[in-house]
């Protein structure tokens, strides 16, 4: 019985996971660390001790993805990089007092521009990577990359942009030995989705549509990120792997 044995080896690799303090990002950071990587995570708070989870196995940087100066500062603080995971994000709904244009812009900045800007700031480090399968950029996209969700138009546009950007980066950066892919996460139980998990009717409808009839676990997204970053995926670039328990193509 081999189930559960770590099959990825990232000994010596340097990995940056944005939004690594919680949910999918934390699971991804733990999975890379378990596989031997030196992992740096980012979060919005000033230090890792400000979080309830014990984050002491990671290097920590404060980085609000809406602040381009903080993005550049994080890149400048690293002494090399092999894998960049653009994961940080949140959903903001447009409240009655909100300017929908401002909310849309913020969501596109959080989910698309930040990852682009961070990858650009890390480009020379990624180019210098000596990972056997090349360096990797992996973005955490969403089912809203493909499906309309009228409640979060900016979030969807940002997530759709990530999928397209991975294709462009794949063609631009293959010559540098960098692959760029996304994982489109389905409905995963995290802090971000906790309010929906608790909305019985809404949650039941989502699960009825999900072929596997359950919420996904953050680790199930992390495993896909490690696969795409590994030498098992050495000929995969510009691709988006949907990990959703069979939601997208169900009715
Ligand atoms: N959960 C799902 O069903 C699902 C589905 C598809 C895609 N995703 C995507 O997966 C990613 C992670 O989400 P999650 O569900 O794991 O949520 P989560 O548990 O709430 O974690 C979000 C992470 O992003 C950080 N973050 C949020 N807003 C930020 C900002 N403006 N600047 C910098 N960091 C910020 C948070 O930092 P702090 O802890 O400091 O707040 C935290 O580390 C997001 O991009 C989300 O859109 C999630």
Helix and strand run: EHEEHEHHEHEHHHE
Count of DSSP H/I helices: 8
User: Under CATH, the topology is which?
Assistant: Rossmann fold
Bound molecules: NADP nicotinamide-adenine-dinucleotide phosphate
Structural class: alpha/beta
Total beta-strand segments:
7
Shape: globular
- Measured on Cα atoms, how large is the radius of gyration? 17 Å
Low-confidence stretches: none
Helix content bin? 25-40%
CATH architecture: 3-Layer(aba) Sandwich
Describe the 3D structure.
- The protein has helices at residues 23-34, 68-77, 100-121, 123-127, 153-173, 194-197, 200-209, 218-229, and strands at 14-17, 38-43, 59-62, 83-86, 135-142, 178-185, 240-243.
- The radius of gyration is 17 Å and the shape is globular.
- A seven-stranded parallel beta sheet has the order 3-2-1-4-5-6-7, sandwiched between helices.
- It has a single domain, classed as 3-Layer(aba) Sandwich (Rossmann fold).
- The chain has 251 residues and is an alpha/beta fold.
- NADP nicotinamide-adenine-dinucleotide phosphate (NAP) binds at residues 19-25, 43-45, 63-66, 87-90, 110, 140, 142, 185, 187-188, 190-193.
Question: How does the SSE layout of this entry go?
Answer:
Layout: E1 14-17, H1 23-34, E2 38-43, E3 59-62, H2 68-77, E4 83-86, H3 100-121, H4 123-127, E5 135-142, H5 153-173, E6 178-185, H6 194-197, H7 200-209, H8 218-229, E7 240-243
The structure holds NADP nicotinamide-adenine-dinucleotide phosphate (NAP).
NADP nicotinamide-adenine-dinucleotide phosphate (NAP) binds next to helix 1 and strand 5.
């Amino acid at each position: 019985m081999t189930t559960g044995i770590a099959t990825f080896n990232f000994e010596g690799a340097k990995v940056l996971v944005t939004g690594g303090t919680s949910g999918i990002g934390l699971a991804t950071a733990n999975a890379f660390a378990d596989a031997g990587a030196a992992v740096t995570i980012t979060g919005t708070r000033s230090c890792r001790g400000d979080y309830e989870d014990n984050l002491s196995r990671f290097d920590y940087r404060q980085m609000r993805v809406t602040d381009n100066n903080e993005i550049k500062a994080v890149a400048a603080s690293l002494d090399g990089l092999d894998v960049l995971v653009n994961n940080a994000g949140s959903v903001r709904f447009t409240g009655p007092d909100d300017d929908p244009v401002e909310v849309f812009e913020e969501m596109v900045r959080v989910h698309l521009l930040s990852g682009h800007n961070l990858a650009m700031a890390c480009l020379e480090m990624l180019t210098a990577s000596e990972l056997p399968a090349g360096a990797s950029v992996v973005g955490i996209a969403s089912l809203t990359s493909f499906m309309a969700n009228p409640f979060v138009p900016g979030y969807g546009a940002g997530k759709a942009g990530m999928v397209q950007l991975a294709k462009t980066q794949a063609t631009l950066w293959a010559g540098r030995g960098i692959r760029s892919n996304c994982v489109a996460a389905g409905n995963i139980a995290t802090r971000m989705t906790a309010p929906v998990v608790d909305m019985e009717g809404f949650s039941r409808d989502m699960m009825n549509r999900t072929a596997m009839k359950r919420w996904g676990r953050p680790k199930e997204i992390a495993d896909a990120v490690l696969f795409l970053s590994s030498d098992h995926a050495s000929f995969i670039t510009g691709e988006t792997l949907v990990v959703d328990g069979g939601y997208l193509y169900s009715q």
